[in-house]
Write a structure and sequence with these properties.
- The chain is of the alpha+beta class.
- The chain has a single domain, classed as Nuclear Transport Factor 2, Chain: A (Roll), CATH 3.10.450.
- It is about 30% helix and about 35% strand.
- The chain has 5 helices and 6 strands, in the order H-H-H-E-E-H-E-E-E-E-H.
- The protein has a 6-stranded mixed sheet, with helices on one face.
- About 5% of the residues have low confidence.
Length: about 150
């Protein structure tokens, strides 16, 4: 009798999990950049799970939980100068709920990098970024002109 009561609850819990598609992932990534570019930490951090981890290995930057991430993004007061975030390439695996993006970010210095985002129930659970400080524009940094498109 107890299993009869629990089974619908277990099934309902399993069915209520949110899985993102590529379009939703792209929208979230662009909205995080929008929040940073506008100095809106509330808007940018709302896409992170309450228990999210934001890191630049090996623990160069490590923030645990949406509250710490919100503060890292500028918190209530923001930053003296505006942040600038631009995505160059985004990709998403719907099956694994993992997204990737190449970016340029600037605040006090300019960085080019890549981030891997793991999603659970439509929120970012893990953000891991690797970045390099560079004054070069993205196309020169990434040597885009050396790659030819195949037609």
């Amino acid at each position: 009798m107890r299993l009869t009561i629990l089974l619908p609850i277990i099934l309902l819990t399993q069915c209520s999990k949110v899985a993102l598609d590529e379009k939703s992932f792209t929208e979230i990534a662009k909205n995080i950049a929008k929040g940073w570019n506008e100095g809106n930490a509330v808007y940018a951090s709302k896409y992170f799970d309450e228990d999210a981890v934001y890191e630049e290995p090996p623990s160069n930057q490590l923030y645990k939980g949406r509250k710490e991430i919100f503060e890292f993004f500028g918190g209530e007061t923001g930053f003296e100068r505006p942040m600038r975030m631009e995505w160059h390439n985004l990709a998403f695996s719907e099956e694994k709920q993992i997204g990737f993006g190449e970016y340029t970010f600037a605040l006090n210095n300019q960085y080019h990098g890549i981030v891997i985002m793991k999603f659970e129930n439509g929120k970012i659970l893990k953000w891991r970024e690797y970045q390099y400080q560079s004054k070069l524009p993205w196309d020169d940094f990434a040597a885009e002109s050396r790659f030819k498109t195949f037609e």
